[in-house]
Amino acid sequence: MVCPHKLTLSLVLCLASVFCYSQLSFQVYNTSNSDLPFNTVRCLKMDTINQLIWAGTDDGLASFDGTSWAIFNSSNSSLTDNAIRSLQIDGLGKVWVGTTYGGLFSFDGTNWTNYTNFNSGLQDNYIRAIEFDSQNNMWLATTEGISMFNGISWQQWNTSNSAMMTNNVTSIAIGKEGKKYFGTINGGAVYFDQVNNLSVFTIASSGIPDNSSRSIAIDSLGNPWFASPAGGLFLDNAFGGPWTNFNVSNSLLPSNGLTSVVINQDQTVFIGSEQNGLIIYFGNNWFNFDVINSGLPDSHLLSLAVENNNTLWLGTYNQGLVKMVGNYAEITNSIKSHNFNVYPNPSQGIINIDIGELQDLNYQLFDSFGREIKNGLLLGGDFSISIENLENGFYYLNFPSQITPIKIEKIN
Fold this sequence. Notes:
- By secondary structure, the chain is mainly beta.
- The chain has helices at residues 203-206, 328-336, and strands spanning 18-21, 24-29, 41-47, 52-57, 60-64, 69-72, 84-89, 95-99, 104-107, 112-115, 127-132, 138-142, 145-149, 154-157, 169-174, 180-184, 189-192, 198-201, 215-218, 224-227, 233-236, 243-246, 258-263, 269-273, 278-282, 285-289, 301-308, 311-316, 321-326, 341-343, 350-354, 361-367, 372-378, 384-386, 393-398, 406-410.
- The chain has two domains: 18-335, Methylamine Dehydrogenase, Chain H (7 Propeller), CATH 2.130.10.10; 339-410, Immunoglobulin-like.
- 3% of the residues lie in helices and 44% in strands.
- The strands form nine sheets. Strands 1-2-29-28-27 form a five-stranded antiparallel sheet, with no helix packed on it.
């Protein structure tokens, strides 16, 4: 397939289709073109030793080596619950699987073991996240609090025996020096220090933008980045602040409704969103890839996993699994060669485009549903577009040499 170097909105149906834009390619795996058991991919984990991507779906567990699939569910394995919600791999290569009702499972390639609140010290069977610390203690985020298993005994933290404000824990990240970070729903950020002293940070007590977070990633300095469902992306620069918040008002982040965050070795921050697809923060630049401007089949992302600095796996809400390959440094350099300035934004009727040079310029204008509203050719440096007849709302202005469309707002 020839990769287009102009940004176009198209629908291509073919087996294991590969979509390319500039230096990026998107390969989609779904129930129609692969053995993926379900198109809702809730969690992902990369097995770097065996070069497998593990995908947890609403109807079973899948592993993929780039050629062959292995599928595990209640009909062909010891899994008693096909609704997979979390994945992790320990230091011995054993796969750990968290489910909605069936508790926690481990799989060593041959044998399965199941931990529930009936046969172990696990306090809840809904396992949202799994992590291992440097002492090989397993930490679990559940809907009834935090559990820790050292291989022999269990320990729990919840609202009845700690300062936690909610038992609904969503995410875990293990930082440096034995520090642990937990996200919650409406309970702020929960931290454990090296000796497991617990601290809670909320909007009221510390100034974080949202008491809920769905995902946490650790950068090279050991600082946690939180993806929140309503407050955007926020970073703790120490251990409980100061905080840095990125949102639609103070940055080019296109959405405050975020679902996931991961960071690769190059310190590229990848962010999944509910409506705006994949957001990339790299070198103080923001990039946004969705169904309008890329080969992403779904702008609602649920999970992310880094394979290497050039490869990212994305789990979508309803369109399967996506493998994205690209060189982000090259993308940054290509965009820096064109400095587009669109003003005023918001605008009541006319928007002006300044790129600091005289040339003819093609453009496309899309609405928030990805429908093309207008297109044209701007000649001889007369770079202005009328939007006075458009309804109030957000639109996306695209130029062929831009990878990410420019978000503009029409107001009265």
